[in-house]
Fold these 2 entries.
Entry 1:
Amino acid sequence: RKDLFFILGPCVLESRDMALQTAESLAGMAASLDVNIVFKSSFDKANRSSLDGFRGPGMEKGLEWLQEIKKRTGLPVITDIHAPQQADEAAGVADVIQIPALLCRQTDLILAAAATGKIVNIKKGQFMAPWDMAGVVDKAASRNPGIWLTERGTTFGYNNLVVDFKSIAIMSGLGFPVILDATHSVQLPGGLKTASGGQREFVPVLARAGVAAGAHGIFMEVHPRPEMALCDGPNSWPIDETFSLLQNLLKIRDALHA
Amino acid sequence: RKDLFFILGPCVLESRDMALQTAESLAGMAASLDVNIVFKSSFDKANRSSLDGFRGPGMEKGLEWLQEIKKRTGLPVITDIHAPQQADEAAGVADVIQIPALLCRQTDLILAAAATGKIVNIKKGQFMAPWDMAGVVDKAASRNPGIWLTERGTTFGYNNLVVDFKSIAIMSGLGFPVILDATHSVQLPGGLKTASGGQREFVPVLARAGVAAGAHGIFMEVHPRPEMALCDGPNSWPIDETFSLLQNLLKIRDALHA
Amino acid sequence: RKDLFFILGPCVLESRDMALQTAESLAGMAASLDVNIVFKSSFDKANRSSLDGFRGPGMEKGLEWLQEIKKRTGLPVITDIHAPQQADEAAGVADVIQIPALLCRQTDLILAAAATGKIVNIKKGQFMAPWDMAGVVDKAASRNPGIWLTERGTTFGYNNLVVDFKSIAIMSGLGFPVILDATHSVQLPGGLKTASGGQREFVPVLARAGVAAGAHGIFMEVHPRPEMALCDGPNSWPIDETFSLLQNLLKIRDALHA
Amino acid sequence: RKDLFFILGPCVLESRDMALQTAESLAGMAASLDVNIVFKSSFDKANRSSLDGFRGPGMEKGLEWLQEIKKRTGLPVITDIHAPQQADEAAGVADVIQIPALLCRQTDLILAAAATGKIVNIKKGQFMAPWDMAGVVDKAASRNPGIWLTERGTTFGYNNLVVDFKSIAIMSGLGFPVILDATHSVQLPGGLKTASGGQREFVPVLARAGVAAGAHGIFMEVHPRPEMALCDGPNSWPIDETFSLLQNLLKIRDALHA
């Protein structure tokens, strides 16, 4: 059952308490379901739609909170960086370093992340074909074989994304674990005036399809109260409906291996 | 187990013998797996890429063959029509009448098919949003409540299609069974000079994802020797790998209902 | 100046008087600007979004009106057909027979239209690559060398179209005149609940770009009162702003040839 | 005639001599045609498809060369930055600072560029709707009203881009000059195994359509020998065909204003 893992957590580190409580919930699920969960949260949202969007606590405080979360829950943590010079400091705490989709072509960022020796989770840009991740993987692999690839939807007209599930098979062919990001994939980019909209109700549909399509991991932003989230609320999944969703996903995974 | 059904068969009625043998194979699977299989084949391919493409035996002979297949295998049959005046004759044999995707907006065709009283399986046009099938459904439902809706991919740039699995949930919301066509969805329209290409290797990925996403039925063109098929070979699934694929799909369906 | 021609008229023949008055306006512009204008209108809208949409006067009455328009204005006329058996009757009146975009892959319709000996204007399907019109052209050219090709936008996500202006150059390479349909290209298919929306304000932008890109003809649905139109109002261009738009387009054409 | 300006130059500063000679050619055209030309070249290609792609001379040497080019040709220069900390140094030389399309959502980069007081040319991301540039513009305008916006195509399926010419009108509505990038718009992203392909033959089509659609400026990468270019060769326009193309574009501009 350990062969399907999950990356879960709030979009942004809204506060120390909120992040810690969410992580403790998730740690409970990991123990109860006997699965691997990586806690995900960002210390800085560097590409908000609007200048007024909440960006987070910043790197210093954010990494401090993540360190505490690791220690108290035992969950490994993943966080994203936006500049090469953040890589080493982030790697001091994070078990996995994430490259945002819009930055997946920035060579220096990939190299710096990979050079830390930590696993690097690279999100496929919304503007890229799955087979073109080969060039991105080559950059990272020149420093470090620990690579994960995440599908989070492709530009589909304006203000919409579509997940091409063939992408999971195609990227798996590159030889690294492939993750489906089921929450960003239901974003409606720019769909709200000053932020991105989302269609939370489709998260389970995409997550289930992702497992059935053969994804090694499922990524979902979860939140205790999505409607109050400071970032990505419309596409975040409620923490109190997360346990049952994970159960369903594990059943599909079991069926595939039966 | 009867709640996941399959529409299976060769793209076109290549010959009486070939169609009958394929149907007998499928009837064996239906019995062995205790599932509903509808035999699908076309009597006329009315929209080939090239004037030289094989079109089929025509309506008269085609319906005769389908009648014999029904009788000898016990499978219900589905076939597609391209003009309103074909509806009644087709309905004399077919249990389900199919509306091709490119014709799903032709009002008179929908009305004529629905007026036969047979179930009408309407393929969503490659140019349509799933919610816009509401208008199409209204046309058919004005004559007959027996409607199925089939997702077969949406135009995604040139010479490519993408399946938006959210579409399965959206169209299910219209109140009728939704089918995923896992073979036409891997077509590369016009990808070959005088015919459409296809990526057969992704058929199981999409079929599994379709079941997991909640499709009521899975449609697949199957062929004893896809590389020799007179139509849609590149995206047809081999008949001798069909039984194991159906087994896998049923396991996923069972997992969803467990 | 005769090398840039126009196809203009109301979407549908709303009434004899309305069509005739519009045609007389257009005939005046043709004379005054010394350009070729083909009068366009449909006798039947066979693929409305909703069953309740106005379909038109039908073939018999519609062709009678078009005949009268030809006679009284001297303008050649173009109208679209939806079934092979309509071709001969339509060709008795129409100077050009049009194949709707959604039907451009229907072999029998193309062959029947071409067999009349009239010029056939084939609209490129919203689901097709421009180079794949080669197969369509081959079908028509097997009967008749008089072919026009019309670009009217390609599916671009849901409820939107985009014109790829490279298409004008690519289709010109097939050896036949290429027309940009500047009004259907600003449609938002299905954008209204029971009809397609449109963005009339962008018609001049696309029409100017079309001429500059090298289109041989510009197609625009024009209407005396677009907001009252029974079909395609949101993307129709007002007749009283048509003369000045044609003047601007001709200036661009002259600049290209200067 | 000064109301249509051009941004022209080689993709990357391949060598001091090559850049200087290209700029001198362009300065000759600017004088002869009495138009404004801004010389464009990059000192670092930070997001090549492959790790082995040529990246350029780096910031220090690159800015030195651009300074010399400014001095010797009198042309203003534009160059792109990829990190906030590059803004001030680049602004010491560049008249216009460019934000790469993939980075147009990175808030700190926009703010740093705008804070220099120089004009900032922001390329619209391939993943963005034109109206969503409002949020990007707000970020820049919070520091500096000198903003240009550049359309360079939108993701259109895999390995292809499409220019929506409506975007020129929509972005013009934001109140800043809008530029059409006619060379990156014909890129086939990732179309070659380890680099992006391109379709140079369509550059004039898009450039002419851009002027006709109302663009204030046209951006084109030009090169003395595109087939030998170290970057973006397949979509670069030959310098020796540039003068005649500019003449044609100016004629269209004149026709619009006649």
Note: The interface with chain A takes residues 154, 156, 162-166, 168-169, 186, 199, 201-202, 205-206, 208-214, 248, 251-252, 254-256, 258 of chain B (CB under 8 Å).
Entry 2:
Amino acid sequence: MPTDIEIARAARLKPIAAIADRAGIPQEALNPYGKFIAKVDTSAIPDFASKPDGKLILVTAISPTPAGEGKTTTTVGLGDGLSRIGRNTMIALREPSLGPCFGVKGGAAGGGYAQVVPMEQINLHFTGDFHAITSAHNLLAAMIDNHVYWGNALGLDTRYIAWRRVMDMNDRALRSTVSSLGGASNGFPREDGFDITVASEVMAIFCLAKDLPDLEERLGRIVIGRTRDKRPVTAAELKATGAMSVLLKDAVMPNLVQTLEGTPAFVHGGPFANIAHGCNSVIATRAALKLADYVVTEAGFGADLGAEKFFDIKCRKAGLKPAAAVVVATVRALKMHGGLAKDSLAREDLAALEAGLANLARHVENIRKFGVPPIVAINNFTSDTAAEHDLIRSFCRNHLGVEAVICRHWAEGGAGTEELANKVVALAEGGEADFAPLYPDVMPLWDKLETVAREIYGAAGLVADAKVRARFAELEGAGHGALPVCVAKTQYSFSADPTLRGAPSGHMVPVRELRLSAGAGFVVAICGDIMTMPGLPREPAAERIHIDANGQIEGLF
Amino acid sequence: MPTDIEIARAARLKPIAAIADRAGIPQEALNPYGKFIAKVDTSAIPDFASKPDGKLILVTAISPTPAGEGKTTTTVGLGDGLSRIGRNTMIALREPSLGPCFGVKGGAAGGGYAQVVPMEQINLHFTGDFHAITSAHNLLAAMIDNHVYWGNALGLDTRYIAWRRVMDMNDRALRSTVSSLGGASNGFPREDGFDITVASEVMAIFCLAKDLPDLEERLGRIVIGRTRDKRPVTAAELKATGAMSVLLKDAVMPNLVQTLEGTPAFVHGGPFANIAHGCNSVIATRAALKLADYVVTEAGFGADLGAEKFFDIKCRKAGLKPAAAVVVATVRALKMHGGLAKDSLAREDLAALEAGLANLARHVENIRKFGVPPIVAINNFTSDTAAEHDLIRSFCRNHLGVEAVICRHWAEGGAGTEELANKVVALAEGGEADFAPLYPDVMPLWDKLETVAREIYGAAGLVADAKVRARFAELEGAGHGALPVCVAKTQYSFSADPTLRGAPSGHMVPVRELRLSAGAGFVVAICGDIMTMPGLPREPAAERIHIDANGQIEGLF
């Protein structure tokens, strides 16, 4: 089998105008970025707003392990499978972040015969959305310090400025800094620091806004700090939001690309799945629903984090009603959940597999709590055995009452997901879906978090010290009690302990901090360590990345 | 007269494919960015390398004053004028920097009826070149700190890391920082800081490289610091240059846009005119020369800085032979050089004008020292009088032996520069040009700088303390003696004192510091204060910039 990059290079891409045509997007609505990428101006699509919505299919996964699950590949593969069986389909994915490409992991555009292309551009600057978000974020930061410099009319307490700067780079040296040094003409020295761009609240806002005016209104609600008498100060008070919106004006248009098999895909927005909600933009998802009968999308991390936030934040706020959810698992990852080490995954081990199925089972049951019918996709690996596949299928059928379908999109593209596609259609059209968020808006923030902990994580409850509890009360008192809670915790376990695989229960979830993202419209509950600026490894991928003698990029993937 | 933005909005732009067609660029060579901008892949233009070169016309100016000269407008106007008189013409300009758009000045794409469009995109993210340069620069910075973090095998002395970070933002708080605070996992704390992106050596390299392989080689030569035993350490030793080149792979293709009258223009690259050489990319200029019979380009600041660096750095290194140079002046600015205050410029004052002509005279004589025939363009203002115009024309004819042509491109577009265009053609085709740099490569660095000071600035000589003199010797000893010298000094005067207007002489030029830009291929001589990260004013333009109810950007220009 050729490598991902060999497959991507061998692909004959269709001109983006042909892909747009297939998606029912007229040429007037296209703003091309090169030959194979275009931003789509939906206001130029006739009768766009009055079109009926297609069916929304979420692809989520078991708790991630080092073995890998293949959520993005399955999303792309399912999209291609639906296309193959004659459904008018679009895919909606997050944009990859540039920083991590130079670290360990390489790109994020699928793999094998289930990729979105052109993968090099998608993984690098793409259409510049993340650069625009970086600029908008940092303009606000510059205006805050500039406001203080020129007299601080708003009376900002510079010890409590909550708005850090951002860069789309893995750069640990910027995590914690002191800025405005070097004398009076450089301002008032203070503690400062940088997050990676995907952790910016501007990114979360970008992905939750329904249009540009809504985006601007949300930017205005960002709380950047407080006065000495503890009054919150917003971006609107700094008069920053008009210019920030101008910087984001083109970026908000969704980016159209194609899969290797020519299925149209929107790749747009990409908030961190820990400090934010971890799914592509509402604008792209809603546009795709207008254009296609089936929209396949994915959410970050495992279903306990990604799907829960997709449902409780994105779907709740955007009024989306998912028709079905695909839970991706691999035999290898399930065996790790069952206790095997990574170097023992190649051999058949039905006992470990059976033990690991507890993780899958919990996720499947959780999906049902949102009124969304689940189905299991087993992303096939060459080391899988027939007995292992049989065990998963019978377990799913007998114990969970769901179908488990073996998928071979990595090796076969859409042909490898036809069975999954047919079953997803049957599920989505079966009338079973009756989506509702897990908790109502009116529930207190503490109770919302406790509900997620008990219902989704299998926890016994929350633990938090007095200061954190006081912060819950403070945010309720300030009128933020109706917001949903965005949990930042380890993605590797249902618990807050990343080493607890499988389906731990009865644990307590430690709440360390509560942060307000008033513009995005959620409260972040930090349950464990959270890293908002990654570092580079000892031998970063950047050292191997180069342009070869044929002008092709090597080492990026 | 409508405002710049009203004119730009009223313009009916031609599709970029039509502009490309006019420039002889086939569709296969176009990578569109929206409907009116494209990057041009010159390798897809048949017989490109073997085409003969057109004639290169430099637009430069007198020493700038607060009255304004209109160098960019004149460049655009002359391009349109040459088109009108039937010459196959292209324009080559710098890209505007994003940061300053939010400060005082607004955009930089010409004005009146002499603009390049679409001006909003050009002034904002454009094709993302500056973002790509920012990313490449900061990737190297991250790799430096990462190298130190993981053991510092190269033995970098962290007190002498010369590679700061960059951001395309006016943000004084970032000028001087301490980074890597917050504990061992964030690295080794050190003094650090940010420059604005246009001040990056990557920007200078980008603009001087002849192609992508040359770019990569130059990136590798960047000296980022030194070891404890004072050995210089390069970007190549950090293995950063492959990934940096990958980030710049698309950016190096020149950006094609159009003037309001449909003249094709490359707008590409934009290094600071103080710490760097201040003109658009060699790649764009050379491509324009292959495509057009006449190429009009501009250089930053007045001719003492901009034209001198254009000739001694860009033309020397890229093998360009300018055919003529236009020195732009205004009656108002000349009267300021003659001693008038800004609020007294509206009334006729022949005595002040005559006194101020000394500044123009020095610049015109300087141009001749490079073997390039000069011509003077008087950018007309409505307050100018016939007597003032007559005085300039007769002074130029009788004392300088050059033509001075009144230009009305701001109000009339190319129709207002037809006379200038005809005279530029006569000059360029007169066989008078015999370009040579001011000094040879082999002259010692100190003597090169002294030559510029005496010949161009009218100075009596240089002053420098022992430490600075030792630095000259150090760079000579390290093998950098053959590089040209890039002077960073005030643009407002021939001297180092910005308040000395007119044509001061006999002054001494203080040399404060000598910096090596080994990748760009020059040595920066800092003669006075130099600001590499601007700040925002008390009431930044950003506060007024917004999207209006019709979806149009207000306040940017």
Note: Residues 132 and 247 of chain B are 6 Å apart (CA to CA).
